[in-house]
Amino acid sequence: MTLALDLTLLRGLRHALTTWLDDAGATPADRDSIVLATHEATAHAMEIGESGSTVDVTAMRDYDDSFVLHVRSDGGWTRSVESDRMVMVHRLMSDVSKQSSSTVRMRRST
User: Fold this and answer.
1) Is the pLDDT of residue 16 over 80?
2) What are the structural domains of the chain?
3) Of the candidates 9, 36, 20, 15, which has an alpha carbon nearest to the alpha carbon of residue 90?
4) CA dihedral in degrees (46, 49, 54, 57; nearest 10)?
5) Does residue 36 contact residue 21 with C-beta atoms inside 8 Å?
């Protein structure tokens, strides 16, 4: 899903991700943690993204049944900061890593 840098679009992201996770067989606890972590990581990317850029969110079920999500800003980030949002993401997900200066990979083991 590609989003403009507009925090009001996060509601649609949460809804789409919830539907996908339910269809993929996520437990309610996993679903809620993944949706909240993705919301926070995406909001963070929107807040520090370059004006006029977009944020891409992708989700997949990995070979070990974990859920893997990427949040990427196509225009890069205006600054690199660890916010309270990202602290929460680290607490909710099994693994969080920066893949590049503008991409975060999150994994939740089931």
Assistant:
1) yes
2) 2-108 (3.30.565.10)
3) 36
4) -60
5) no
Spatial distance between the Cα atoms of 107 and 101, rounded to a whole number of angstroms: 18
Cα–Cα distance, 59 to 38 (Å, whole number): 10
Nearest to 44 by CA among 106, 104, 107: 104
What are the pLDDT digits (tens) for 58-93? 999 999 999 999 999 887 665 555 678 889 999 999
Which H or E element spans position 84?
helix 84-92
Give 35-50 pLDDT, tens digit per residue. 999 999 999 999 888 8
Can you give the pTM of this predicted structure?
0.91
Cα–chain center distance at 95 = 12
